[in-house]
Hints:
Helices cover 29% and strands 21% of the residues.
Amino acid sequence: MKAARKIQLNLFGDVIKLMIVGYVIKLMIVGLFCFESFNYDALRNRVEEILGIDIDEAKKIQISRGKFTVKMDDKIHSINVSDLDVAVRYNCKFCHDFTARFADISVGSVGSREGYSTIIVRSMEGKRILDAIDFEESSVNLNGLYKVSSLKRRKAIKKIPRGIKINF
């Protein structure tokens, strides 16, 4: 999200609107809660090595509470996400931003009950968009959200090489 905002500012400066053939294009950035992302080929190979299944055939793949779960037909296979570390993208090891702080709206499942999403509005543009849609409000477990966000931050800090100073 930080890189997207830097690109946005470099391309448009303080003006976020672009005129093209009489239309106003507004940029809005939606960020997803993200603990880490995987290189798909490495992930597919690692899951096949550990579980003996091809995730290309999966009906559903989900990561929740430290478990990577794959539903194949009527059978569910599960492993610890930590067993997939070799497939984590390199830059994710240093990223500390779980909740996409630089987005207009951040969305994820952490903090919300099953089947719902937690939405964090971070800008006036994000509020304008959210105000335009119909949704059901519910309480959010902020402690759960803080816990996962803090864990990501601590994990990223551990991976920063000695002598390099990073401003969070």
